[in-house]
Structures are given as C-alpha cells and as structure tokens.
Design brief:
Elements: H1 16-29, E1 46-47, H2 48-58, H3 63-74, E2 86-87, H4 101-104, H5 106-109, H6 130-140, H7 142-148, H8 150-167, E3 178-179, H9 194-197, H10 224-239, E4 252-253, H11 255-274, H12 280-296, E5 298-299, E6 304-305, E7 308-309, E8 314-315, H13 334-345, E9 377-378, H14 379-392, H15 395-414, E10 420-421, E11 428-429, H16 435-446
Antiparallel strand pairs: 1-2, 3-4, 4-7, 5-6, 7-8, 9-10, 10-11
Helix pairs in contact: 1-16, 2-3, 2-6, 2-16, 3-6, 6-7, 6-8, 6-11, 8-11, 11-12, 14-15, 15-16
Protein name: Mannosylglycerate hydrolase MGH1-like glycoside hydrolase domain-containing protein
Domain Mannosylglycerate hydrolase MGH1-like glycoside hydrolase: 43-437
GO molecular function, one term: Glc3Man9GlcNAc2 oligosaccharide glucosidase activity
Length: 452
C-alpha cells in the first residue's frame, strides 16, 4: 500500500472553519440537556468514557458545558467508587436500547454497593480517562473552574474511582486493574478477547433482543454468538449483586485500560495539588501500575503490550491497538516507546500508510476491516496514540503525530464524523454524527493539546 501522506502530507483535505462548525453542530445536536449522547439513534444514553472525550472537545467551545458533562456523569457514581459505563436517561423509551435499565437493575441489584437510588445505571465500567478530561477542562478556563468550584467537587470522586480500581479490581493480585467484561476496556468486540470469551456459556437467544441491529448493518456489529456471551457475563455479574470478588468467567488485565489509569493518576495528582490536597498517593499508584504494566504485560516477541488472561495467567498472543496505548503513559522508558513506534509503523498497524490506527493486527487471521473493533480505525484510540507520540518528543514521533493528526481530521470530515472507518479505504462505518469523533476533531483543530 502506498503511503497516504507524502507531499502535502499535513493537508487535512477540508476547510478547518467548516470542520469546526460541523463538529460543533454534532455536539449541539447530541446534547440532551444534561449530557451528550454518543448518537441519537444507537446510543441514546450517556456513556462513561464517551463523555470524557466529549468534555475534552467541548472545552474549546464552552468550558462550563464541558464541566457539566463530567459533573452529570460523576453524579451517578456508586458509593464503592465505580463510575458506571452507562447512565440511563429515564425519558428514553424502555425498548430503545439493550441492555437497558430493566436488564441492569442497578438500584436494586447494586443497592448494597451504593448504586444511586435516583438514577439507573449499568454495573460495569469503562476506561478511566475522567481525571485527564477534568484536568484539561480546568486548564481551558481556570477562572471559570475556580468560580464554580469544579475541581474541589470532582477531586474526591475521582480519587474514589481510582481507589476502587486499585482495590476491588486488582483480581490478579499484582497491582493491575482487571476487566470482567469485554465492554469494559472499550474495545468491545476485539479479537483480543476471543480466547477468554470462548469459555463463556452464551445466553439463550430467546432471552433478549438485540436493538443494535435496528440501527447498523450486521456485518459491522458483533456476531450473535459473541453478543450472547456478552449478555451472559453481564447477567451473571448482576445476579452476583455486582460483586467484584465473585468467580468471573472472564478476567483479563488489559494494557490499554491500565495505561489510561496511569495517565489518569498523574492527572489526579495535578488536580489534588490544585485543590491543596496530597498528590503522593496518586503518584505512588501510578508508579506501581507502570512497574506492573511493564513486567506483566510486555510481549517482547511481538514488540507490543498484550492482555493477560487471568484464567490461565498467560499473555494472549494478540496485537491490538490497546497494546499501543502505553505510548500515552507519562515517563514510559524509551526502550518500550521505541519498540511500540516500530510496531505501530510496521506491517501489523501500518501507521502512516493506513487511515489512522487499525484497532487490530492487519496481518492477523481475525482481522476484519469493517466489523466493530476487529480491525476498523477509531478516532478516540487515534487521539490517544497521537497524544503518546507527541509526548515522546523525538523528531520521528512528532512527525508521526503531525501526520496522524492530519489523518484524523481528514477522516472525520470525509466520513461525516463516523463512529469508525475502514483502515484501508477510510470509508465511514457504524453510526454517523458520532460525538467523540466530533469532539476530538475539535481538540486536534485547536492545536492546544497540553503535555501529559
């Protein structure tokens, strides 16, 4: 494949003023009065890491609106510290999304763990990018942040969230947070989860109805078998009373999830300093996490970080974009950064020769250019890789970051702010007018990404 970015490499192929206006229009259209839905069709509620990315983009339009985005999400935090991956809007019809509030039954099944009685949520979590988002939002308008008491109100919530992950979710006992459902790391349908997921007995097909296929073609979505296993895992967790210590059929230490937690710990330390708190515990957790990440999840043979299946206590022989996300870890030793850049620009991901960053190994047998997280390129993971390349600070990584930024903006514009794109053609797949695509395009347009 010839390179996409040669002469005129950083031309995004669109007028930046029109792109900014169009991205702002998407976010305005997806605002429901308290938060931003990922899309009006397939995702009509508020999602956890979606809202963090939305806030990062919204800070360039309205820092106060960005603050409110995070405040509303964290308002549904459970007493045990978890931030649920969905906060349900009671105004949305019951059958508009599955699994909905009637499935999760959070206020009943999770009541003894501190699920809020005033709002229905899911019981699982998503990657912890919230502290990073809160710090960036604060820095966008410190005066407004201080006036509203934004950081003092969020700091204890974010600290409780990180403590939940460090305690309740250290299922392997080695200092890393574990995921108990493929939806938790955000890369829902990745081939990275195929092996541990194969052990899960699927739910009966007549016990639920998939609503996602009403809004998207089946070829873009998870298979019926995979979806039945997702339902079974979520149902078992609910029926355990959302007990993290229960015997989970799926237990994995994911490099992407833990890398974002490390970056978030450093952001939390900045937040705690700003409000007069003690940053030491957050920094200590970040250092322990980094040590565990590099010793437990590094696959030297593939030159990438890999998930560890706690069922077998072995690294999974896969290469997903989650294995590149440690690029965003502050202070990652250069030996790992250099190897990750080599892998990213090699045949597995083709950085600079594909559209953005494929979500899975281009050479892998399970790669699918169009199916949800099994190969397509996503805008949020591209934003994270871009951030990591920028932070690495070498001439090579800066050039790669600049080219990736141009590619993200070009693909966002040409795809109509699609949920994700085919990495070979750039054709938009999934839902159009997707919120985090618009938000992160706004952030890259602003050209004001702060140092990690």
């Amino acid at each position: 494949m010839t390179t996409l970015l040669q002469s005129g490499a950083r031309d995004t192929g669109c007028d930046h003023g029109r792109l900014r206006a169009a991205a702002a229009s998407v976010l305005l259209g997806n605002w429901n009065g308290t938060g931003t839905v990922p899309s009006r069709s397939l995702y009509p509620h508020q999602w956890s890491w979606d809202s963090a990315f939305v806030a990062i983009g919204l800070r360039h339009l309205s820092p106060r609106r960005a603050q409110q985005e995070l405040e509303w999400l964290l308002g549904a935090q459970w007493a045990d510290g978890r931030i649920p991956h969905i906060v349900f809007n009671p105004a949305v019809p019951a059958g508009a999304y599955f699994p909905g509030p009637d499935f999760w039954r959070s206020s009943a099944a999770g009541g003894h763990r501190g699920a809020p009685a005033f709002a229905e949520t899911s019981g699982i979590v998503q990657p912890p990018v919230h502290a990073l988002a809160a710090w960036l939002v604060h820095r966008a308008d410190p005066h407004e942040s201080v006036r509203r008491g934004f950081l003092p109100r969020l700091a204890p919530k974010l600290d409780a969230w990180h403590r939940y992950l460090a305690g309740h979710r250290d299922l392997g006992g080695h200092g890393l947070a574990a995921i108990i459902h493929p939806w938790e790391p955000g890369l829902d349908n990745s081939p990275c989860w195929d092996a541990p997921l194969a052990r899960v007995t699927p739910a009966a097909e007549d016990s639920y109805r998939r609503v996602d296929l009403d809004h998207s073609v089946a070829a873009d979505r998870p298979t019926d078998l995979d979806y039945a296993r997702y339902v079974r895992l979520a149902r078992d967790y609910r029926d355990s009373g959302y007990d993290d210590a229960a015997p989970h059929a799926f237990r994995v230490e994911d490099p992407g999830f833990n890398s974002l937690l490390i970056a978030a710990e450093y952001a939390l330390a900045d937040i705690l300093r700003a409000v007069g708190g003690d940053p030491a515990p957050a920094l200590e957790r970040a250092e322990r996490l980094t040590a565990a990440l590099t010793t437990r999840l590094w696959d030297a043979g593939r030159g990438i970080f890999a998930p560890r299946d706690l069922g077998s206590d072995r690294l999974l022989p896969v290469a997903g974009v989650n294995g590149l996300l440690p690029l965003a870890v502050p202070g990652l030793p250069s030996a790992f950064t250099d190897a990750l850049v080599t892998t990213a620009t090699g045949e597995r991901f083709g950085l600079g020769r594909t559209h953005m960053v494929p979500s899975y190994d281009l050479t892998g047998a399970a790669f699918d250019a169009n199916r949800y997280w099994r190969g397509p390129s996503w805008f949020n993971t591209a934003w994270l890789v871009h951030r990591g390349l920028q932070a690495a600070g070498t001439p090579v990584t800066r050039r790669l970051a600049d080219d990736l930024r141009a590619g993200v903006l070009r693909d966002a514009w040409r795809s109509g702010f699609a949920e994700y794109v085919n990495p070979h053609t750039g054709a938009g797949r999934g839902i159009k007018d997707f919120s985090w695509t618009a938000a992160l395009a706004l952030d890259l347009l602003a050209g004001q990404q702060e140092d990690l």
